[in-house]
Amino acid sequence: MSTKGGPSTGGRVGRTRGFDRPYTQEQYICWGGQIISLSLFYALGGSGFSANAFNTVVLGLHGSIVLVSLGLWLFLETHDPTEPSCWSRRLPDSERWTKLSYDRMHMKKIEGLDHFCPWLNVSIGRSNYLPFILLVALGLCQFGLQAVVGLLWALSGAYTTAGLVFIVLHEVMVAPIWCMYVMLFGFHVYLGVRGLSTYGYLMEMKKPKGSKPKAPKAGIRRDDRPSDSGVSGAGGSADGGGVKGEGGGSAKFSKLSASEVDEELGLPSGASGETEEPSSPSAIELAVDGAEGGGSGGGGNGDTVTVTDTDTDVAPAENEALVVASTNDETISM
User: Fold this and answer.
1) Does the predicted model carry a pTM greater than 0.70?
2) Using the 8-state DSSP alphabet, how is residue 37 labeled?
3) How far is CA 241 from CA 15, 223, 284, 316, 323, in A?
4) pLDDT band per the 50, 70, 90 thresholds, residue 218
5) Could you tell me what percent of the chain has a pLDDT over 70?
6) Taking every pair of C-alpha atoms in the chain, what is the biggest distance, in angstroms?
7) 68 pLDDT band (50/70/90 cuts)?
8) Nearest to 16 by CA among 75, 79, 71
9) d(CA 55, CA 51)
10) What are the backbone dihedrals phi and psi of residue 18, each rounded to the nearest 5 degrees, phi first?
11) For residue 283, what are the β-bridge partners?
12) CA 122 – CA 129 distance, rounded (Å)
């Protein structure tokens, strides 16, 4: 599925990969932690290699995990998540993985957007979610293996006092990293069972308990069939079914497709579809002709109400703009 992005605002350019500058603090911590922990592990394994018969198997298994992890990490850091990949086809075509959501860091819409990872400095979506979760699983195995083997080395009696100091240093560094991988992997397993993304989970946690989901927003158009319910021009009552003028005329409204929006607004075909600017709202014009007495408190015939709405996937800061305009040269902004 294609993605569309908008031009940068304020001179800022959207990210395309994890190696794009500026780097995050978490990236530096990740790189430094891996280098130090691997250096300690292989130095300790090499110094006690002959004393421990299992070192050959342990170091070989650990080295294989590190190499596969390195390949996955390089893919995540160099691949643009707005573009499809071979991993995209391994996920089902459900709403969870096909929905396009706007990402502020990349300034584009990403298919199956899950979250932005500061440790990789890249957003995780459909095209890179599987290598991400595999990297987490391998990190869980890598640091779990290092922690267990470090304890076995300490109990083997093959190391001097200086060696034991380095083993303790290694364990102090590795244990919290392993716990972080356990929590991260467990969290994503929980999300997978529930069919949620990270963003979806966070939004669910923000909702007050017992609140009802909002009805989806849609275009509306006039239908000249009679209606007994509506918004009265004189009395100001609203029953939600239509718009009724003083003279007894009434109007109902039905959903409006994108092509019909263009026709109602007098725009070129396709003008009301997705634009290159993801934060640009779509406009729906609602023409209400008051019957005999005019609509809404005795105004003239042909009043125009314009409702400007935004899609929920665009930048939240520009959401919920409402402008009501009238042909009687009066404008009310809310």
Assistant:
1) no
2) H
3) 46, 11, 18, 30, 21
4) low
5) 57
6) 101
7) very high
8) 79
9) 9
10) -70, -25
11) 308
12) 11
Report helix, strand and coil shares of the chain as percent, to nearest 5.
40, 15, 45
- Specify the residue for token string 């391998």: 138
Q: Which two tokens stand for residue 213?
A: 């989901």
Strand partners, 117: 122
Judge contact between 11 and 88, C-beta under 8 A.
no
Going from the C-alpha of 273 to that of each of 31, 277, 284, the distances in angstroms are: 43, 11, 12
Alpha-helical regions (H) of 21-113: 25-47, 55-78, 95-98
* pLDDT at residue 265 tops 80: no
Residue 240, both tokens: 């939600």
- Write the CB contacts of 89 (distance below 8 Å, at least 6 apart in sequence): none
Q: How many CA atoms, within 13 angstroms, populate the side-chain half-sphere of residue 297? A: 4
Residue written as token pair 């665009």: 314
What gap in Å lies between CA 304 and CA 286, rounded to an integer? 6
Residue 117, pLDDT above cutoff 60: yes
CB 149 within 8 A of CB 159: no
Q: What is the DSSP letter of 47?
A: H
CA distances from 307 to 9, 188, 266, 287, 304 (A): 25, 39, 16, 11, 10
pLDDT one-digit tens code per residue, 124-144:
999 999 999 999 999 999 999
Structure tokens at 19: 């190696």
Tell me which long-range contacts 303-309 makes (C-beta under 8 A, separation of at least 24).
303/327, 303/328, 307/283, 308/281, 308/282, 308/283, 308/284, 309/217, 309/281, 309/282, 309/284
Helices (H), ranges, 125-257? 129-156, 161-194, 198-206
Does the pLDDT value for residue 289 go beyond 80?
A: no
pLDDT on residue 331: 37
Six token digits for residue 139: 């990190």
Tokens 């319910």 sit on residue: 229
Res. 310: pLDDT tops 90: no
